[in-house]
Design goal:
Oligomer: single chain
Strand content: 15-25%
Distance between the termini: 14 Å
Largest sheet: 7 strands, mixed
Helix content: 10-25%
CATH architecture of the largest domain: 3 Solenoid
Number of helices: 6
Radius of gyration: 19 Å
Order of helices and strands: EEEHEEEEHEEEEEEEEHHHH
CATH superfamily of the largest domain: Hexapeptide repeat proteins
Length: 212
């Protein structure tokens, strides 16, 4: 019951559209946990190029995705490099075109728009063509509806949908969510996860809490 090897890029035989991202993504500014996968009919190998946009090393922001996340086709993480300065009358980036237009540009007007790392917790399901905007934090166990645009933080075990994404409901009571976060089954050794799949897939928090 040890499960698949998390170091295998394509873990499902005859189904190359699904790939574990940790061995597929090799960028210092992207961190992805074991068993998180991306599903794309064109293949998951280009996840970093197709799905993580405007991500530039010199900015320093990171995309951090936890373990056991499921990311559907076309999901996009828009990083801080997409931001424009908002403090003046125009948002047009005159300075990047040079030829004199860069003179007088104050980099601080742009750096004020940097919103930090984008962080996705563990066991998060991100639906098809969802868009995650810079600096948002998505809690563990959350579900992001297809084509949603996530503009603000999402609480653990919340279901959100729409543009901008709003909470539709919490998957469990607040008390149960607190207990689930304390259990943190995604941090268990793989053999323990394998032994307790019924509890993880089930809905009995006591059984999960007493797993051995």
């Amino acid at each position: 019951m040890d499960g698949p090897n998390p170091g295998i890029k394509h873990p499902i035989p005859m189904h190359p559209r699904v790939g574990f991202l940790k061995p597929l993504v090799n960028r210092p500014n992207i961190e992805i946990g074991e068993f998180t996968y991306y599903d794309d009919p064109d293949g998951p190998d280009l996840f970093a190029d197709k799905c993580v946009l405007h991500h530039y090393d010199f900015i320093g922001d990171r995309l951090i995705v936890g373990k056991f996340c499921a990311i559907a086709e076309g999901a996009q993480f828009i990083m801080n490099g997409a931001n424009h300065a908002l403090s003046g009358f125009s948002t047009y980036p005159f300075n990047i075109f040079g030829h004199g237009w860069e003179k007088g540009f104050d980099p601080e007007t742009w750096s004020r728009e940097v919103r930090g790392d984008t962080v996705v917790g563990h066991d998060v399901w991100i639906g098809m063509k969802a868009v995650i905007l810079p600096g948002t934090n998505i809690g563990s166990g959350a579900v992001i509806g297809a084509k949603s645009v996530v503009t603000r933080d999402v609480p653990p075990y919340a279901i959100v949908a729409g543009n901008p994404a709003k909470i539709v409901k919490l998957r469990f009571s607040k008390a149960t969510i607190a207990r689930l976060l304390a259990v943190a089954w995604w941090d268990w050794p793989v053999d323990k996860i394998g032994r307790n799949l019924d509890a993880i897939r089930g809905a009995d928090i006591v059984q999960l809490e007493h797993a051995t």
